[in-house]
């Protein structure tokens, strides 16, 4: 990592690489750094994510319930993306309730915020394509009602570039149009269904990675 930052804690990992919690030693800001692997396929995917994130700069991240992106840097051959640090995933937030699910009074504002995020993504022609509880972050679990933001645009595409038959997202969360290989649009993001947001005990952990 650049000399202006140092790693503080490991946050998670996936097929792309790892996410670490880092502090910028110049401004004392703590952020989340997504460190992509250096292999060519992951690098190409990271470059597409940067393209998507550049489009999203037109949106207000707080008003639109989308994670704030602070830019990127290179660490050797690895592309590192700098994001605001958020509290925990919705998957973990629900898990803290011992999978009893969220009451409607708490679930309703979360769904409203997700609808708001998807509306604004659609307004700039972007499809997230992998919306699930692991890619929805709670900003601060101690707030009531909680505020959520959509993260991880690693599989996102311009709506105009969607190709019928091209598998997108995580099995179990994919919209029927994607599974059937028929023409689709931004509406595929809506298939993050209510039951899977409310409970997680029937969802495999692999669905969140």
UniProtKB/TrEMBL annotation:
Pfam family, any one: Pkinase
Give all residue intervals belonging to the Protein kinase domain: 5-209
InterPro entries from the UniProt entry: Kinase-like_dom_sf, Prot_kinase_dom, Protein_kinase_ATP_BS, Ser/Thr_kinase_AS, Ser_Thr_dual-spec_kinase
| GO terms assigned for molecular function | ATP binding; protein serine/threonine kinase activity; protein tyrosine kinase activity
GO terms under cellular component: cytoplasm; nucleus
Signal peptide, first to last residue: none
UniProt xrefs under PANTHER family:
DUAL SPECIFICITY PROTEIN KINASE (PTHR24058), HOMEODOMAIN INTERACTING PROTEIN KINASE, ISOFORM D (PTHR24058:SF17)
The family this protein is said to belong to: Belongs to the protein kinase superfamily.
Name of this chain's protein: Protein kinase domain-containing protein
Origin species: Pundamilia nyererei
For this protein's source organism, the top of the classification is: Eukaryota, Metazoa, Chordata, Craniata, Vertebrata
């Amino acid at each position: 990592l650049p000399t202006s930052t140092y790693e503080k804690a490991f946050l998670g990992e996936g097929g792309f690489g790892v996410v670490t919690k880092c502090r910028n030693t110049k401004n004392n800001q703590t952020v989340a750094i997504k460190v992509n692997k250096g292999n060519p396929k992951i690098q190409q995917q990271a470059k597409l994510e940067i393209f998507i994130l550049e489009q999203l700069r037109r949106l207000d991240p707080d008003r639109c319930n989308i994670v704030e992106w602070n830019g990127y840097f290179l660490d050797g051959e690895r592309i590192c993306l700098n994001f605001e640090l958020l509290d925990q995933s919705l998957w973990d937030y629900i898990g803290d309730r011992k999978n009893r699910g969220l009451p409607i009074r708490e679930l309703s504002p979360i769904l409203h915020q997700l609808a708001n995020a998807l509306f604004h993504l659609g307004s700039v022609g972007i499809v997230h394509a992998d919306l699930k509880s692991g890619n929805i972050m709670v900003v601060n679990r101690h707030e009531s009602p909680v505020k959520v933001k959509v993260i991880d645009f690693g599989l996102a595409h311009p709506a105009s570039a969607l190709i019928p038959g091209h598998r997108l997202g995580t099995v179990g969360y994919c919209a029927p149009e994607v599974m059937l290989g028929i023409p689709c649009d931004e509406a595929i993001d809506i298939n993050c269904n209510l039951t899977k947001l409310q409970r997680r005990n029937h969802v495999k952990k692999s669905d969140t990675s």
